[in-house]
Design a protein that fits this description.
about 350 residues; alpha/beta; 2 domains; Spore Coat Polysaccharide Biosynthesis Protein SpsA, Chain A
Length: about 350
């Protein structure tokens, strides 16, 4: 069995492969490097064959299965103790694997971890997707140390620590293979976006830990497949955010938090409309319709978790309401929040 497998899911990312894959190979001695091609229609496979034959293993997926389906497909074929799910648009740095591997080995209850995620195009600032480790608030809104909503902090060493967090980013996710499969992998209904939060929530419910390791640093371009302004991303985030709550919240909380989230989603939809983004407004509406249409599946998954005896206690959850703290009270950085 390989100790560490770095697995890059590629979809039409030929330029990212040419730019960043050589750095991954150079900076990851001893690790197996795997590129799982998720049904690309560009010349990614030809580039892998021509430029990286012998340096990386290639898994060919016949069609785009999404982030969740693609990784589930690929990881089933890889025999490794630790998986690293790495976005193709990430620049790793020398020694990026060692510190995280050391943390994972130090405690068998630590199931997953992430490095510090900085912005590739503004390297002294945190990047949106993960920053310095993820949390959720009382209503299930995700945020990060170093990033509240779209407000990104400058990296001045304030998060050069190692500590538990609620969720680790799927852009660069280290996870024990046994923990990944015990949770059933990534929920393919999510397709992409917020699936790692769902996975980490399950880890938390099982009494396992998720960590952030600030000694390891990577740089993320972001928006390599879907830009932040893409209505498809808006749709997925709103739909998956609701499924996240329905699957995981205890009934006593779900009964009032889900209706409140639905209401706040409609507020967001109206805001999109007023700001001249009718496509994003429509994406929220479609997200709600799809969520309602998929209630049966989410409820079945909720029952399955209950039957497995997976407990509800949530660690690392912010008990406040981020929307109020951020938009009304002006708390724009993580250190202003009172845990």
């Amino acid at each position: 069995m390989t100790e560490v497998a770095v697995v890059i899911l590629n979809y039409n990312g030929r330029n990212f492969l040419l730019q960043f894959l050589p750095i991954v190979i150079t900076c990851s001695p001893g690790a197996k490097i795997v590129v799982a091609d998720n049904g690309s229609t560009d010349d990614s496979l030809e580039i892998l064959e021509k430029n990286f034959s012998g340096s990386v293993d290639v898994i060919k997926i016949e069609k785009n299965l999404g982030f969740c389906g693609g990784y589930n497909y690929a990881l089933k074929t890889i025999d490794a103790e630790f998986f690293v799910l790495l976005n193709s648009d990430i620049e790793v740095t020398p020694g990026w694997i060692g510190p995280i591997l050391q943390v994972l080995k130090s405690d068998a209850t630590i199931a997953a971890a992430q490095p510090k995620i900085l912005a590739y195009h503004q390297k002294d600032h945190f990047e949106y997707a993960g920053a310095a480790g993820g949390f959720i608030d009382a209503l299930g809104y995700p945020f990060c140390r170093g990033r509240l909503f779209n407000a990104l902090e400058k990296d001045s060493g304030q998060y050069n620590d190692t500590r538990p967090v609620f969720w680790a980013t799927g852009a660069c996710l280290f996870i024990r293979s046994i923990s990944f499969f015990e949770c059933g992998g990534l929920d393919e209904k999510f397709f992409a976006h917020m699936e790692e939060i769902d996975l980490c929530w399950q880890l938390n419910r099982r009494g396992q830990k998720v960590y952030y390791v600030g000694e390891s640093v990577v740089y993320h371009v972001g928006g390599g497949t879907l830009s932040k302004s893409n209505p498809r991303k808006t749709y997925l985030n709103f739909k998956n955010g609701l499924s996240l709550l329905l699957k995981n919240l205890p009934g006593s909380q779900l009964i009032w938090k889900l209706p409140l989230r639905l209401f706040l989603d409609w507020v967001a939809a109206l805001k999109f409309l007023v700001q001249g983004s009718p496509t994003d407004c429509g994406a929220v509406v479609r997200a709600h319709l799809n969520f309602i249409g998929g209630l049966t599946g989410d409820l079945e998954k909720r029952r399955t978790l209950a039957q497995q005896g997976v407990a509800y206690p949530i660690t690392m959850q912010y008990k406040g309401f981020l929307t109020i703290d951020f938009f009304l009270l002006g708390k724009r950085t993580f250190d202003k929040l009172e845990f």
